[in-house]
Design goal:
alpha+beta
């Protein structure tokens, strides 16, 4: 079983600067569907990526999009080559993205995020308006139902 909560806890404990986006953020806002991964937007500077690597070290992260499923091995020098990281870990899949369609880069995403508390863990998630815009901008068939749910949740919150 995937343990997304533990994954996010490790990121926060290791001071990774990130915002939860995608399906997990939709669920946090009240959408009712299942997600297979955690999507985060983060600053892809070397210091933050090295914090990410430290956070995931005991979860055996590997690049799931590489043919040989290479282990995650970041250095100050090679961090510059990454814009996204798609990782398999012992706690589940983690997609690390530097840009969200319809929202922008990490700084814009962070400005359009909001804090939530899950048990004792405080995390930032993309706010509802930005999440709807991102889902619409991606223009994927699989997001149609999610957009409808998120728009309904927004109407209920606004009333």
């Amino acid at each position: 079983m995937k343990d997304f909560f533990s994954l996010l806890k490790k990121l926060s404990q290791n001071k990774v600067d990130y915002v939860v986006v995608g399906g997990f953020a939709c669920i946090a806002h009240g959408a009712t569907f299942v997600t297979q991964d955690v999507d985060i937007c983060l600053d892809f500077n070397a210091d933050n990526l090295l914090c990410l690597q430290k956070a995931l070290a005991d979860l055996h992260p590997i690049h799931r999009m590489t043919p040989n499923k290479l282990k995650l091995k970041l250095t100050k020098e090679n961090c510059k080559q990454y814009k996204n990281l798609y990782l398999d870990t012992d706690s589940g899949q983690l997609d690390c993205i530097s840009f969200i369609e319809g929202v922008g880069g990490f700084e814009q995403v962070k400005k359009k995020s909001m804090p939530i508390k899950i048990e004792k863990l405080h995390i930032q998630i993309l706010n509802l308006d930005a999440l709807i815009e991102a889902k619409k901008s991606m223009n994927r068939e699989k997001d149609v139902q999610t957009i409808t749910q998120l728009e309904t949740i927004k109407k209920l919150k606004d009333s």
